[in-house]
Amino acid sequence: MYYTNIQVVLQEVPGEISICLSICGCKLHCKGCHSPMLWKEKHGKKLTSEFFKGLLKKYKGFASCILFMGGEWHETELINYLCLAKTEGYKTCLYSGEQHINKKILNHLTWVKTGRWISELGGLDIASTNQKFIHVQSNKLLNHLFFKNH
Ligand code: SF4
């Protein structure tokens, strides 16, 4: 599993300070993709358990959520990282372009974003979007949290 960058983000998961890892190898190739550098599998740096554990330690007490932008195509590896994050007390989120995410992965997520990027429909902050931001355990759709005046 390779990643291009790691950022602290405030808006992708409402109410949470998230450490966001962008994972390489997305096969969806959406038209107008914001990050085409993620299409190639071995771009960026290899993610290792040692590095990831260090990241969890570094941000513990500051960040509250670990967010993966993609990576569901590395199911076992992703689940391992989600387990490590949960063990350290983090909430977890996956942003995917897929419509459906395997239950094995969902079992380790607090939130999931599904749906590919379709520019005519817009993103999570627009009612017309095809994308869904869901609280996994309750299966509640939470897109309204992204609307400007919610
Ligand atoms: S799912 Fe995301 S990263 Fe993948 S092609 Fe679509 S917009 Fe780009």
Question: How does this model look, in words?
Answer:
This protein has about 150 residues and is α/β, with parallel strands linked by helices. The protein has one domain: TIM Barrel (Alpha-Beta Barrel), CATH 3.20.20. About 20% of the residues lie in helices and about 25% in strands. It has 3 helices and 8 strands, in the order βββαβαβαβββ. It has helices at about 50-60, 75-85, 105, and strands spanning about 1-10, 20-25, 45, 65-70, 90-95, 110-115, 130-135, 140. The protein has an 8-stranded mixed sheet with strand order 3-1-2-4-5-6-7-8. The longest helix is centred in the middle third of the chain and has 13 residues, at about 75-85. The N and C termini lie far apart (about 35 Å). The model has no long low-confidence stretch (mean pLDDT about 95). Bound molecules: iron/sulfur cluster. Iron/sulfur cluster (SF4) binds near residues 34 and 35.
Quick summary of this structure?
This protein is α/β, with parallel strands linked by helices and 150 residues long. It contains three helices and eight strands, in the order E-E-E-H-E-H-E-H-E-E-E. Strands 3-1-2-4-5-6-7-8 form an eight-stranded mixed β-sheet.
**What is the end-to-end distance?**
36 Å
CATH superfamily: Aldolase class I
- Per CATH, the class reads Alpha Beta
Give Rg in angstroms. 15 Å
- Please, how many domains? 1
Instruction: Calculate the mean pLDDT score and round it.
Output: 97
What structural class do the secondary elements suggest?
A: alpha/beta
